[in-house]
């Protein structure tokens, strides 16, 4: 099951006659920010450290390391590890990254009925997952699974791996290769400016009943708006289009054409939404986010989304050469 964790989202419905000004107020500095993520080298190094410890202590284990969005970077199991440990290791890592706290803490909160959201949202609040925090920012997570055969040592192993590679998380230890990478991401202020610009454009063109969504490069919702008369389908597809454009780093109209021509039906089979109206936003060669519009007639969704990007990011592009 694919679960979307929505954060920092504002969802209201407005009449199309409202004119927004926040897009005009945004400064270039407020449009994008730097985000750090663990590198593939650091992910593999942590796994190697934990594998060595498990070998010394003589228990089977499966290990997974993900980036800050929960996408798998490195994975390894040992001989003797059962199939379910590989699945749980990945789920623990993803859950720790998404909730930005150890899964052991989530486990206690779920069992004490303080907060059962991780359970109900389809995540895996079982001990063994740990976020990797560097200078106050979650840059990834590690998950360990041993099917109860380690006596809790798999959790110690994962924590020791984090400390061995990242030290105290304040000052990074020396390393032969970079432990962190930095990328540009759209800010919440810029996301709101994009939504406002699309609503303003729709008002000028007399387009009605639209949904507009903006997501970060990982597909996490940052800002959302529905205009008067928008159907549930328009609202839902706007976010799906934005998320799909971010996942594939292509305009959804390109995916639509490839799916219908049976050149590549992967987006369809992977549960994404290859319908026109979604665009990634590139500044230089880096994708900083994506926008999606739904509910329009003909090319209205595409027009609105592209006009918003051009208003807020005049030098950005929404497509790259294959």
Question: Which key phrases capture this entry?
Answer:
322 residues; alpha+beta; Beta-Lactamase; 2 domains; five-stranded mixed sheet; four-stranded antiparallel sheet; 11 strands; 41% helix; elongated; disordered N terminus
Report on the structure:
Helix 8 packs across helix 12. The protein folds into 2 domains: 150 residues, Beta-Lactamase, CATH 3.30.450.150; 139 residues, Haem-degrading domain (Beta-Lactamase), CATH 3.30.450. The N terminus is likely disordered. The strands form 3 sheets. Strands 1-9-8-11-10 form a 5-stranded mixed sheet. A 4-stranded antiparallel sheet has the order 4-3-6-5. It is elongated. It has 322 residues and is an alpha+beta fold. The protein is built from 12 helices and 11 strands.
The CATH architecture of the largest domain would be 2-Layer Sandwich
Mean pLDDT: 90
Kindly report the CATH topology of the largest domain: Beta-Lactamase
The biggest beta sheet, please? 5 strands, mixed
Q: How many structural domains does the protein architecture include? A: 2
Map the helices and strands:
Layout: E1 13-14, H1 22-25, H2 28-31, E2 32-38, H3 40-57, E3 62-67, E4 72-77, H4 83-99, H5 103-111, H6 117-120, E5 129-134, E6 137-145, H7 153-166, E7 180-186, H8 188-205, E8 211-215, E9 221-227, H9 232-248, H10 252-260, H11 266-269, E10 278-283, E11 286-294, H12 300-312
Parallel strand pairs: 1-9
Antiparallel strand pairs: 2-7, 3-4, 3-6, 5-6, 8-9, 8-11, 10-11
